[in-house]
């Protein structure tokens, strides 16, 4: 503030009609609003946090949103929060998955930061000792499905929304850790069928194979079910819970700890391939035309 004030005073002296008054400073700071937050956090009286993805129109996961989500999880861990409910501010989309614009005609440095942030945020969410629930209040394709799968429990608003890892439909292969998350939820057989077909499941279909745990008819019910799931852990000794979660999720955790660099390299090599870039460009065009 002191530097801003000094600069303004110099400017005011030059123009002589301006003074570095509180009113002037307020006008100056109003003209430069802080960028909107992409993730909001509300902690209720019971100590349960609702973490809301808020990047209209479709909560596509760019570096900024992923970074904010990672920081939010770390902060909630530091504050000993009793539970995390992950949801969306949109009425129709939980998350459209990775932001394709981060991958289309990228600068190498940005691409690397994007993928590393995704890896780190995913690991934070997947392994956090805090009980996690996804309240899926809209479509959740690809990376959106990954976020939901990384939580311990999934409640989805139905029946009209869809969820799944649809990568093969886009001509790409979901990274191994995406696959581990799907296997965690539905078992190897169902995961193989879902992933090879890149199937997007209706809410009812997702419920039938265990991709989600509960179907509800609106967001309020989803939040209430999530709170109920989290409340059961009040009676469970936290250390036992934490160690059990860490142990049962060992495959995914170990995979990322041991393979993050190779995974980054594979992603970087793949994305810059001319045929992938061409495909991404066509996909973006198709999304615009389908409007
Ligand atoms: C994908 C190739 C990656 C290459 C790298 C290779 C391998 C590494 C592995 C990478 C793993 C990737 C996993 C992913 O998550 S990839 C992303 C996959 N996501 C999708 O395919 C979803 C696409 N979106 C939709 O299906 C729909 O948007 C919707 C979520 C069902 C919502 O529909 P609707 O409400 O009708 O909204 P619109 O379709 O009109 O979209 C509004 C607006 O948003 C833009 N948009 C949508 N999705 C994305 C996205 N994922 N990234 C960036 N932008 C997106 C869309 O283009 C519209 O923009 P305009 O308003 O400007 O037209």
Shape: globular
Give the topology string: H per helix, E per strand. Answer: HHEEHEHHEEHEEHHEHEHHHH
Q: Give me the number of helical elements.
A: 13
CATH class: Alpha Beta
What's the average pLDDT?
91
Q: How many runs of DSSP E, i.e. beta strands?
A: 9
Small ligands present: ligand LLH4SW3U
Give me the Rg, rounded: 22 Å
Head-to-tail CA distance between termini: 46 Å
Within CATH, the superfamily carries the name: 2-enoyl-CoA Hydratase, Chain A, domain 1
Helix content class: 55-70%
CATH fold descriptor: 2-enoyl-CoA Hydratase, Chain A, domain 1
How many domain regions? Answer: 1
Can you lay out the helices and strands and say which pair or pack?
Layout: H1 2-15, H2 22-30, E1 39-43, E2 48-53, H3 63-78, E3 83-88, H4 100-103, H5 108-127, E4 132-136, E5 140-141, H6 143-150, E6 153-157, E7 162-164, H7 176-186, H8 188-197, E8 201-202, H9 203-209, E9 214-216, H10 219-231, H11 238-248, H12 250-271, H13 274-289
Parallel strand pairs: 2-3, 3-4, 4-6, 5-7, 6-9
Antiparallel strand pairs: 1-2, 7-8
Helix pairs in contact: 3-5, 5-12, 6-7, 7-8, 7-12
The protein binds ligand LLH4SW3U.
Residues 57-58, 60, 92-93, 96-101, 103, 139, 141-143, 167, 170, 172, 175, 267, 270-271, 276, 280, 287-288, 291 line the site of ligand LLH4SW3U.
Structure description:
This protein has a single domain, classed as 2-enoyl-CoA Hydratase, Chain A, domain 1 (Alpha-Beta Complex). 55% of the residues lie in helices and 13% in strands. The protein contains 13 helices and nine strands. The strands form two sheets. A six-stranded mixed β-sheet has the order 1-2-3-4-6-9, with helices on both faces. Strands 5-7-8 form a three-stranded mixed β-sheet. Strand 1 and strand 2 form a beta hairpin. Bound molecules: ligand LLH4SW3U. The site of ligand LLH4SW3U has 28 residues, from helix 4, helix 12 and helix 13.
